[in-house]
Amino acid sequence: MSAGRRLRDRLVSGDMLVAPGVFDGLSAKIVGQAGFEALYASGGAIARESGVPDLGLLTMSEVLARLAEIVRTSPVPVIADADTGYGNALNVRRAVQEFERTGVAALHLEDQLTPKRCGHYAGQEIVPAGEMVLKLRAALEARADPDVVIIARTDARSAAGFEEAVRRANLYADAGADVVFVEAPQSVEELAELPRRVRAPLLVNMFQGGKTPFVPAAALSRMGYRIMIVPSDVQRAAMFAMREAARALRLDGSTERLQERMVTFREREELVGLAAWEALEERYLKRPADPPSTTKP
């Protein structure tokens, strides 16, 4: 069963799906082992992992390289952030094909101008809705596996207001998007209204500190949302921990006072599967003993 099929089956059964954001192979392993049923390969988190802000600065090739790493190490379906599709409808077509080759279960495309900017920054600009519909058509036609989930994101709430966001959401649903993602609703009332007015399964982006007020997963599920992505929390926690370790090492000359907040040497190697790799090494790389000579004296 393909990753897309697994994700589709999960969306039509059970509670709302929560997909934490990951940004490399290690974070995919850690979050996947925590028991989640899907992961979100966050474009913003991948950008920050490269040391740059979420302003569309990475090329598609850079994102694909990280995405392939995430999919390879994730035990569950991966939802990918394809930004604007890296250009026009032709670029979208190629982007969908390349993202699908990595093995993602789903990807979302947004209606911002290229290059895009984080939906929780200021200054988003959006393309005409008709242009986005054509990009969605290109995305749907480009899939080799029809089970790959195409998610249409609109940033119209910040750029043009709530009513335009609702209009575009329904327009994109009517164009064939499997799931719709209205970025950055700005009140609990807006969050509650969207599932009542949008004619498609809805994804919501939830974290502390952005334009959208924080609402717990259970309440969002009751509102009618089907997917909740949490793009930055794991990375923000990692940033905090790395900064603390660096400060301790600089001030104290060691990280001794942080040992209770760090994984052990053994836990580190268990996480990346050292024992399995050593077993393979034993099987394949050890030189066998020379066979006895069959030459007669």
Order of helices and strands: HEHEHHEHEHEHHEHEHEHHH
By DSSP (H or I, 4+ residues per run), the number of helices equals 13
Give the mean pLDDT: 92
- Helix fraction by DSSP (H/I, runs of at least 4): 40-55%
Q: What is the CATH topology of the largest domain?
A: TIM Barrel
Shape: globular
What would you report as the Rg, rounded to the nearest angstrom?
22 Å
State the low-pLDDT regions, or none: none
The computed structural class is alpha/beta
Amount of beta strand: 5-15%
Total domain units: 2
Number of distinct beta strands: 8
CATH C-level name of the largest domain? Alpha Beta
Named CATH architecture of the largest domain: Alpha-Beta Barrel
Cα separation of the termini: 62 Å
What spatial order of strands do you see in the largest sheet? 1-2-3-4-5-6-7-8
- What's the name of the CATH homologous superfamily of the largest domain? Phosphoenolpyruvate-binding domains
Oligomer: single chain
* Sheet having the most strands: 8 strands, parallel, barrel
What can you see in these coordinates?
By secondary structure, this protein is an alpha/beta fold. It folds into two domains: 3-232, TIM Barrel (Alpha-Beta Barrel), CATH 3.20.20; 239-284, no CATH class. Helix content is 47%, strand content 12%. It has 13 helices and eight strands. The protein has helices at 3-11, 25-33, 43-49, 60-73, 89-102, 129-142, 156-160, 162-174, 188-197, 217-223, 233-252, 265-271, 274-284; strands at 17-22, 39-41, 78-81, 106-110, 149-154, 179-182, 202-205, 227-230. Strands 1-2-3-4-5-6-7-8 form an eight-stranded parallel beta barrel, surrounded by nine helices. Helix 2 (25-33) links the parallel strand 1 and strand 2 (39-41).
